[in-house]
Specification:
408 residues, alpha/beta, 7-stranded mixed β-sheet, 6-stranded mixed β-sheet, 13 helices, globular, binds iron/sulfur cluster
């Protein structure tokens, strides 16, 4: 029973949902085609407290050896019919069933991904609407999602209302904003008003995931503003595969510029404000290039002081790669083992943010279950950092004004 291996194996194989399962009636979350192009599955918590998103809607999941059953009111995972583990459904908060004061279902403004709030605040990524030919990334489902499970435009007030409900009722500590590409590099201009209000009124940790702005000085301003995480999804480290899978990103920015943005932002950690933690992520998708190339990406990202986010490729229904096969678990294990070891070797701050459980990726700290190596001093240091951050955020949340105080 290795929880990281189970999480990984389920990403690669998916699971069949048995007819005995009534996820929503049992307090679970509806399967949503979420943003970022890789989420489409059932949100559950595995043994060991690992939150995950199990593919259940794709054809490959229908052939999986895993199946999920409900027995005596409890959800169980079986493999080839044999009981493997108990599963807990990720709880669906009450606010999931409410509308905002503007009348939109709150889940069309933001959704929980694990235990943080994910918001895709603007119109669809322009690679999807490019003329004469679309230039979307081949694995991406964002252009299929918007307007289905997600509202097209979300005002700052609407997002604040949902973030406040998620803070109060779900105990979130972190809000993640995600945009695609917009001509004129407007994505940071779009996000800044949301960030400013969330930092001022809720004191939450905030991260943004956008293309790399052409003026890298803009990230100095975000750092000053109190943003805690910037993430750049270059997806693929092999230049030829990058060009084939991400034609829009290749034409607009190019792989080298993505890497330059990762390097630049990672160096901003040394600047203030000191009370705001800062991490830079380089995000890749394992399973779309050879494992050695993914490992090279991990080594490069960590060498500049950034933390890799490694997704597992999921051939989502309706995407250009829907007929591709998901990766094999045994090919993924060395990648995720290296993820943990490289982060620990470089002393990067992994696993420090309180109550941030991520369902769509296997986190670096979760990958410790895949490595025989232990890093006792660094582990102690990380625990101390986590404690200090929990303390400082606790004070900040306690001092945040209520909605009524803000309205006055
Ligand atoms: S940049 Fe690529 S992955 Fe991101 S939303 Fe656009 S098409 Fe999808």
């Amino acid at each position: 029973m290795n929880p990281a291996l189970l999480k990984l194996d389920l990403y690669c194989k998916g699971a069949r949902l048995d007819d005995t399962c009534f996820v929503e009636q049992d307090g679970g979350r509806r399967v949503l085609r979420t943003r970022a192009g890789l989420g489409s599955g059932l949100e559950v918590i595995l043994p060991g407290g690992l939150w995950t998103n199990i593919p259940v809607a794709e054809p490959f999941a229908q052939k999986s050896p895993y199946s999920i059953h409900r027995e005596a009111g409890q959800y169980r995972l079986r493999r080839r019919g044999r009981d493997v583990a108990a599963l807990a459904l990720s709880p669906r908060p009450e606010w999931y069933d409410r509308t905002s004061s503007t009348g939109k279902p709150m889940t069309r403004i933001g959704t929980l991904q694990g235990t943080y709030l994910g918001v895709y605040p603007a119109k669809v990524c322009e690679y999807w609407t490019q003329k004469p030919q679309k230039e979307n990334c081949k694995f991406c489902s964002v252009g299929l999602n918007l307007g289905v499970d997600d509202a097209d435009e979300k005002s700052v007030d609407e997002v604040l209302e949902v973030a406040r409900a998620a803070r109060r009722e779900s105990g979130i500590t972190y809000v993640d904003f995600n945009t695609g590409h917009y001509g004129g590099d407007t994505y940071l201009d779009i996000l800044e008003p949301y960030v400013t209000r969330i930092k001022r009124e809720l004191g939450l940790l905030v991260g943004i995931q956008t293309p790399p702005h052409r003026n890298l000085k803009r990230y100095d301003a975000l750092r000053e503003m109190g943003v805690n995480r910037v993430s750049f999804c270059f997806e693929i480290f092999d230049p030829e595969t990058f060009r084939a899978i991400c034609p829009g990103k290749h034409r607009e920015y190019g792989l080298d510029y993505y890497l330059e943005a990762v390097r630049y932002c990672a160096a901003l950690g040394r600047k203030g404000p000191r009370h705001e933690p800062w991490v830079t992520n380089g995000e890749i998708i394992a399973g779309l290039e050879p494992p050695e190339s993914s490992i090279k990406a991990i080594d490069w990202i960590t060498s500049v002081g950034a933390i890799p986010t490694v997704c597992v490729f999921r051939p989502l229904v309706g995407t250009d790669l829907e007929d591709a096969s998901p990766p094999k678990t045994e090919e993924m294990v060395p990648i995720f083992r290296r993820l943990y070891e490289a982060c620990m070797e470089k002393g990067l701050p992994i696993g420090c943010a309180p109550n941030v459980h991520v369902s769509l990726v296997l986190l670096p700290e979760e990958c410790r279950y895949l490595s025989p190596r232990r890093f006792p001093w660094r582990t102690l240091k990380l625990k101390a950092m986590a404690k200090a951050l929990r303390f400082s955020l606790g004070r900040r949340f306690a001092a945040a004004p209520t909605a009524a105080e803000v309205a006055r």
